[in-house]
Automatic annotation (TrEMBL):
Classification via InterPro entries: PWP2, Quinoprotein_ADH-like_sf, SSU_processome_Utp12, WD40/YVTN_repeat-like_dom_sf, WD40_PAC1, WD40_repeat_CS, WD40_rpt
GO BP term, pick one: ribosomal small subunit assembly
Family: Belongs to the WD repeat PWP2 family.
A Pfam family recorded for this sequence: Utp12
UniProt-listed SUPFAM superfamilies: Calcium-dependent phosphotriesterase (SSF63829), Quinoprotein alcohol dehydrogenase-like (SSF50998)
Compositional bias ranges of the Low complexity kind: 891-902
Protein name as it appears in the record: PWP2 small subunit processome component
Localization (cell): Nucleus, Nucleolus
Species this protein is from: Takifugu rubripes (Japanese pufferfish)
Acidic residues bias locations: 880-890
Length: 902
């Protein structure tokens, strides 16, 4: 079992806060999700989370005009320069203060950052390697309060900055003699957006109270006059600005000294019109705005969830729609002006709207509360999640997008599961119901309830999909239903504490139940639901899991241990102490060290790997551990998050937050002198408080049936970790004569079987694919028959991996068919060991079947329509010919009658 799992994707959250951006071609949306960046490809309907993360939540993202690089800034002002092509971090920088906005110039040579009441212009990183990628060019002072927004002219000569002091400032990017700065008023609230007209200095400004001002300039862009070269003004900063980074750039102040003999005409602005959005009083508090210069379309979003489209400068309303009842946090327009992106941080929504056809291009929403559980479908293609928001969501593991949401539950969903068929989802909730959902018709077709109200905290479905069991956390009972009839079959009693976990055996009709009463009970479903065995533990049982072959049971207990049992003999075979591997962080309000806290921590979720050799464990910590069962040792530990915006992330006390009166974390940020301390047992903070930090935790873990990936539901979202084969060099039976040169020599001699064996001994993906695709298709059956058994399994696994992405569909299908036909009996004898490989092959084939069946159906209906249309035209043409013949015959008969008369 290889443990080279790397972070692959982030599901369950599509937008948190910050500004949205479109890619250069306009086909992708770049969205900040916590401390990560997700890219949603709207053309191919896929998503990808970049393998980079900041130390805190991202608040600002700027993308270069060529779309190659982006700058992301977090809450503290720490910035990363990342490549959108290689997905790598190029440079680290710190602005030392929170950044409100960032914008590249259209020519890509400069970018402006606003922090506090100052605007800083930097040289943009070039195409060559640089020692310092961020070089300060100029600092601009003018506003008295924090700056909010930026926009550039099309030729990158000037930029405009909006501020919270209700003023808008126009600055020159170069030293223009007739435009150093210009201040505009006219608003009575915070400036939300300021935009230049296309190829002009004319301006539009939008404020938070729903006011639009149109400003006209008396000078064109080509009328700006470059000032004479002077020595750069390297004067010191005014008091209060000592921390600004201006030692390498010049300072431009809002009130410069203008020579008295200066007679040049300076740039002037005039307000030509003023418009109001909230004439009827239905909505106010404008929160986001975007302007597309080519089409003159202004998009504005409001706190009530309404957005408007206006055509400027006439202020003609195109249409007004409501997305939801949540505040629109960010608006962006793509380069062509067809698609508009909206981000709502309240519910974690991301929408892309095509305004001309008035339809959604993209609509996604994650769980806006904690995710409690997840489950993989039997083929590994789908993932279902349940959250505290009462929703059950189904995600496509290939595209990373949610394609159906079930909202029938009225309280938190505590557990979800797939049946063995893969088309039925079962979920348990605190609302006292267990519901079954159909993935064919997307409906809730079965609702299972108990005789008396109970809150279900755990769920399990047997291998046949016929029996559904749920454990109650208040009555200590286990309820058993029939999926076919929906009837309650039995109520299993015997536990003396809440039931924490249920698990069915994969090979027998045996149910294992874990409880806080320090016992594991094995219930025989075939023998009147009696207790078959009782396993006595030394501490409260929190989680239980069966090995895929059903021959072993893993139990996580409150003392931080994982014990392994033989379910047939009820004997403990081994145990692992994992308390010291959790390394829990300390919360801001804790008064003890993280080491002392870890003594009371334990694993709350367990799952076996696909081959049963290892176990995956997670709990109230930012770490997920993989243990080797045979060696009883920790193999690898994954840090699921480095986001310091979450609580319980830091191991040591932050002395900067300590005062003589105690920790600053105990002081509420809101108004009043009340100190807000969360109640014991509360993990998410008081939702009615003004400010809270969610605590990092892992609530559920699952391995994919294919063994190629595993998933974890965390405070950050649904994290997917997968094997990256291209980055791992893992040769098998390597020798001196096994080289790429010798492999290609075998290919030239047409020794196909020898070349394949050597390529798999070297185990380099690109070389294996080259050798396999060089083999003639008529030689496949001969080669498959002559391969040794050990290479048959390796070749089958490689074919399953290639079949998922390769375009040579028939070629790889021939390989798979011949391997299964010629070695089927031997593979069947080792089916337990190669089950992940067979499931990966099934998943690839099923995906191609689904795609091709849709295409064939579409083409079939088109052909039928064309054939029916041609028949209809043929009948019409035949009828016209018949009419023409009858007309000719009638004319001929009339002519003959006339001749007879004559």
């Amino acid at each position: 079992m290889k443990f080279a799992y790397r972070f692959s994707n982030l599901l369950g959250a599509v937008y948190r806060q910050g500004n949205l951006n479109f890619s250069k071609d306009g086909n992708s949306v770049i969205s900040p999700v916590g401390n990560r960046i997700s890219v949603f490809d709207l053309k191919n309907n896929t998503s990808e989370t970049l393998p980079i993360s900041t130390t805190k939540n991202i608040t600002c993202v700027g993308v270069s005009p060529d779309g190659n690089v982006a700058i992301v800034v977090d809450e503290d002002g720490a910035a990363l320069l990342i490549s959108l092509i290689t997905r790598a971090v190029l440079h680290h920088f710190h602005f030392h203060k929170p950044v409100s906005s960032l914008r590249f110039s259209p020519d890509g040579r400069k970018f402006v950052v606003t922090k506090g009441n100052v605007a800083l212009m930097y040289h943009a990183p070039g195409k060559h390697r640089e020692f310092n990628a961020f070089v300060l060019d100029k600092s601009y002072y003018g506003p008295y309060d924090e700056t909010t927004c930026i926009d550039w002219t099309d030729d990158s000569k000037c930029f405009v900055v909006g501020s919270k002091d209700m003023s808008t400032w126009v600055f020159g990017a170069e030293r223009w003699s007739n435009l150093i700065y210009y201040s505009l008023g006219g608003h009575k609230d915070v400036i939300v957006g300021c935009f230049f007209e296309k190829d002009s200095l004319d301006l539009y400004t939008v404020s938070q109270d729903g006011t639009l001002c149109v400003w006209e300039s008396d000078t064109q862009l080509d009328g700006l006059i470059l000032a004479k070269s002077k020595d750069k003004d390297r004067t010191t900063l005014t008091p209060g600005h000592e921390d600004q980074e201006v030692e390498e750039g010049e300072v431009i102040r809002g009130k410069p000294e203008v020579p008295k003999d200066e007679k040049r005409k300076t740039v002037r602005y005039k307000q030509i019109s003023k418009h109001f959005f909230n004439k009827d009083g239905d909505f106010n508090n404008l929160t986001a705005a975007a302007f597309h210069k080519s089409s003159h379309i202004l998009v504005t979003g409001f706190a009530s969830g309404i957005f408007h489209l206006h055509e400027l400068p006439e202020f003609n309303l195109i249409h007004s729609l409501s997305l939801s009842d949540q505040r629109i946090s960010s608006v962006a327009i793509n380069s062509s002006g067809d698609w508009i992106g909206f981000g709502c941080s309240g519910k974690g929504q991301l929408l892309v709207w095509e305004w001309q056809s008035e339809s959604y291009v993209f609509k996604q929403q994650g769980h806006f509360n904690n995710m409690a559980s997840l489950a993989y479908s039997p083929d590994g293609q789908y993932i279902v999640t349940g959250g505290d928001d009462g929703k059950v969501k189904v995600w496509n593991s290939n595209s990373g997008l949610c394609f159906v949401t079930f909202t029938e539950h009225t309280s938190s969903v505590t557990s979800v599961a797939f049946t063995s068929s893969g088309f039925v989802i079962v979920s348990a909730s605190l609302d006292g119901t267990v519901r079954a959902f159909d993935l064919h018709r997307y409906r809730n077709f079965r609702t299972l309830t108990s005789p008396h109200p109970a809150q279900f905290s755990t769920l399990a479905v047997d291998v046949s999909g016929e029996l559904v069991s749920a454990g109650a956390q208040d009555s200590f009972e286990i309820f058993l239903w029939s999926m076919q009839t929906g009837r309650l079959l039995e109520v299993l009693g015997g536990h003396e504490s809440p039931v924490s976990c249920l698990c069915f055996s994969p090979v027998q009709s045996v149910l294992a139940s874990a409880s806080w009463d320090k016992t594991i009970r094995l219930w025989d479903m075939m023998d009147s639901w009696q207790v078959k065995e009782t396993l006595h533990l030394t501490s409260d049982a929190l989680s239980v899991a069966y090995r895929p072959d059903g021959q072993q049971l893993a139990v996580a207990t409150l003392n931080g241990e994982i014990s392994f049992w033989n379910p047939h003999t009820a004997a403990q075979t081994s145990s692992v102490s994992g308390r010291h591997d959790l390394e829990t962080g300390r919360k801001d309000t804790d008064k003890v060290t993280a080491k002392q806290l870890a003594k009371g921590k334990s694993f709350t979720s367990l799952c076996y790997s696909a081959d049963g050799e290892s176990v995956l464990a997670g709990g109230l910590s930012k770490f997920v551990c993989i243990y080797n069962i045979k060696e009883q040792m920790l193999v690898k530990k994954f840090e699921i998050s480095s986001n310091l915006s979450f609580d319980a992330m830091e191991e040591f006390l932050d002395r900067r937050k300590m005062t003589e009166f105690g920790s600053l974390a105990l002081v509420d940020d809101g108004e009043g002198e009340d100190v807000h301390i969360s109640l014991p047992g509360v993990r998410r903070g008081d939702m009615s408080s003004r400010h809270f930090r969610p605590e990092i935790r892992v609530s559920s873990l699952r391995f994919s049936p294919t063994g190629r990936s595993w998933a974890a539901t965390t405070t950050e979202g649904l994290l997917i970790y997968s094997l990256d084969g291209s980055m791992v060099f893992d040769p098998y039976d390597l020798d001196l004569d096994v080289t790429p040169v010798s492999i290609r020599q075998q290919l030239r001699r047409q020794e196909w079987a020898a070349a394949i064996i050597l390529a798999f001994r070297l185990n380099e993906k690109a070389l294996k694919q080259e050798v396999l695709e060089t083999v003639p298709h008529d030689q496949i059956s001969v080669i498959c028959a002559s391969l040794p058994d050990i290479y048959v399994e390796k070749l089958l696994g490689f074919v399953a991996a290639c079949l998922e992405n390769s375009g040579h569909l028939q070629f790889y299908m021939m390989w798979a068919q011949n391997l299964l036909m010629l070695h089927g009996q031997k593979l069947k004898n080792r089916s337990a060991a190669i089950l992940p490989t067979l499931q990966a092959l099934q998943k690839s084939i099923q995906r191609h079947v689904d795609n091709l069946s849709k295409l064939c159906d579409f083409n079939m209906y088109n052909i039928r329509y064309a054939a029916a249309l041609s028949r209809q035209r043929g009948l019409k043409r035949t009828a016209e010919d018949d009419d023409r013949v009858s007309e000719d015959m009638s004319e001929a008969s009339s002519d003959a009658a006339d001749m007879m008369m004559l």
